[in-house]
Amino acid sequence: GRAPAVTGAPRPAPRADGEPTGSPLGGSGTKRAESAAAPAADGSGSSSSSDDEDTKTAKLAKMSAEAKQKGNAAFSAGDYPKAVKQFTMAIRMDKQNHVLFSNRSASYAALGKYEEALADAERCVRLAPKWGKGYGRKGAALTGLGQGGEAVKAYLAGLAVEPESEALRGGLAEAKAAIRAAQDRYKEMWGKDAPQTDAVDAEAPHPPVETPKAPAGDGAFEQAPRPPAAAEDLSASDQTAPSRDDVKENVAPLAPEVAAVTAAVNALDKSDVRAWLAAAKDGDLARMKAMHSKNPALLYAWGKGTSLGFTANSAQHWAAAKGRVDVIRWLLAQGMSPDVRNNADSTPLHSAAGAGQDGSIRALLLEGGADSTLRNGLDETPRDVAVGRKKGDGDLLAGTIDLCSRVAQLAAAKAAGEAWPMRTMQAALQLAGRDLRMYSEKSEFIAATEELLGSMPSRIVPSGGGATLPMPSLFARPEKGEAEPAKGMAEPIAAAAPPPAPRAAPAADG
Q1: Which of 272, 385, 399, 430 has the most CB atoms within 10 Å of its CB?
Q2: Positions of the region Disordered (predicted)?
């Protein structure tokens, strides 16, 4: 009546990615099955095996989350090779997590490795066909590969599932602009019009009146819904293009002055660009001034929107990350935006926060008027990046960002002749270490605020400094309800007004 001894366990069925069912790391699924196949005589074997399995699963999930957090921190700091490494480690332990593939795709794109970025984006779309950001990653990779028509299709597929996504609409506009630029280059080279494509005229769907938006902030990636295991695979190629009855996407053509800037930047010798960025990284201001006097277009040498895909960071990013405050100030004086984006949508303020550069943070916010509310490709503000640091100084850096943001806000209000809100004055003074119990009358708060502002450096007003090209204002993302700025619109440096004061970062006072 005894059952024959079990000599081996059947091989578990493979998962969608080719790994055995019980083998998140690979190679151990059969061994676990063999150890769990024969229950102990007292009947406790099955329970013990199940407990061990749960413990191991929990451990792997924790390790994956830790690797993901390290990847996010590396991405925010501009260390994209490290970000790729950390996201790869996380993926090995959680191969069904679409967010990890999305994050690694963004990291590859920031490195200019668009083939790898595309592969990860397509995997993300297969895992989460109802998550719009995956289509955005695919569109960005295709744009980087010069496949503008396919990029347009990817963005439209994403808008079909998330019609309100400003990021997808912005990416769609960039893909169309890239197609137009390629057509212009073709005509300039061959003296005839390029073959026409319908992609430029493709329409984005009209967003519905009420569509729940995914929560923004540091946890936006983690909160993205994971599709059920049996979800239908709706890759971008399977999506139906929106009807032409929908509202047509309004994408303005490049302004002539911006077209001139783009042409000048694309004509730069890549060795000169590398030397320019290296000088910013090393703090060699004399070399930068000499190079800039010979070729002012170097001021605009960053990857996003140009053929310089290898330049993940602008000179301002490198100066901020390395604490080269004198370089930051000089670039601001030439008219360079403090909010310029790199290929990962990070601003110099993100780079400064990720690298723990307090001086760079102060210069960008107080002297440059940087916007502390802008989010990078991981949906993080500079404050989020600062808090996420593992060096023990995150809270101090976040406090610097909060203080400088409020001081800049107060300075802008003063310049405009506006009254100072009491709550803003109180918040700024408290962040500066003042004891609010010292003040009882509003006039005392105003006097203390005046003293605080007097102790801070003033805004740098761009003088042009020999730069003859206009500075494209393509960096700040519009708020919901505001009009999307036309891609490519710009204004000359000489006539540029100081950028608006940044909105204050959230603090305890609300």
Answers
A1: 385
A2: 1-72, 189-247, 472-510
Return the sign of the alpha-carbon dihedral for residues 152, 155, 159, 165.
Answer: negative
| Pair of tokens at residue 249 | 């996407």
Residue 465 gets which letter from DSSP? T
Identify the residue whose tokens are 């197609």: 179
Q: Residue 62 sits in which domain range?
A: 52-195
Sign, CA torsion 390/391/396/402: negative
490 beta partners? 472
The answer to whether residues 303 and 417 belong to one domain is: yes
Measured CA angle at 197 (ends 191, 202), to 5 deg: 140
471 DSSP β-pair partners: 491
Q: Which residue has the tokens 């005839």?
A: 192
For 160, residues 6+ apart whose C-beta sits below 8 A from its C-beta are: 205, 239, 240, 242
372 located within any domain: yes
In the predicted structure, residue 491 carries a pLDDT above the cut 60: no
Instruction: Give the tens place of pLDDT for each residue, 35-53.
Output: 444 444 445 555 566 667 7
Say whether pLDDT at 216 is over 90.
no
Is pLDDT of 194 > 70? no
Structure tokens given for 150: 């396919």
Indicate whether 439 and 331 sit together in one domain: yes
Domain assignment present for residue 119? The answer is yes
Is there a single domain that holds both residue 58 and residue 181? yes
Measured distance CA(82)–CA(39) in Å, rounded: 44
Quick one: which H or E segment has residue 196? none
User: Is the Cβ–Cβ distance between 312 and 343 less than 8 Å?
Assistant: yes
Tokens of 498: 């100081």
Within this chain, do residues 437 and 353 fall inside the same structural domain, yes or no? yes
SS3 20: strand
Q: CATH code at 139?
A: 1.25.40.10
Q: What is the mean pLDDT of the chain?
A: 72
Torsion of CA 281, 364, 493, 310, to 10 degrees: 40
Our count of domains for the chain comes to: 2
Secondary-structure percent of the chain, ordered helix, strand, coil, rounded to 5: 55, 0, 45
Contact 87, 81 (CB under 8 A): no
- CA dist 117 and 141 (Å) reads 6
Find where tokens 């801070």 sit: 456
- Residue found by looking up tokens 């107060």 in the block: 410
Q: Count of alpha carbons within 13 Å of 205, Cβ hemisphere only?
A: 20
Q: Which residues contact 408 (CB under 8 A, 6 or more apart)?
A: 365, 366, 369, 501, 502
What one-character DSSP code corresponds to residue 387? H
